[in-house]
What we know:
GO molecular function, one term: metal ion binding
Number of helices: 4
GO biological process, one term: photosynthesis, light reaction
Strand content: under 5%
InterPro entries: Antenna_a/b (IPR000066), Antenna_alpha (IPR018332), Light-harvesting_complex (IPR035889)
Order of helices and strands: HHHH
Function: Antenna complexes are light-harvesting systems, which transfer the excitation energy to the reaction centers.
Keywords: Antenna complex, Bacteriochlorophyll, Cell membrane, Chlorophyll, Chromophore, Light-harvesting polypeptide, Magnesium, Membrane, Metal-binding, Transmembrane, Transmembrane helix
Amino acid sequence: MQIMGYKPLEQDYRFWLVVNPATWLIPTLVAVLVVALAVHVYAFSLPDQGWSAPAPEAVEAVAAEEAAPAE
């Protein structure tokens, strides 16, 4: 296979000479972990998100609205 004078099957090894997985795999995975943790921290810091339960007054108000007859 040849694309515009480039033979990827014969010349793609050059990429791995620069981006050596033995050197860059762990730092890349650590960077992905840091980004994932940052996204989760931000998402859980948004209002009405995360693990916190609603206040008891809000739960009682919703229960009272559901128990009221529909008009």
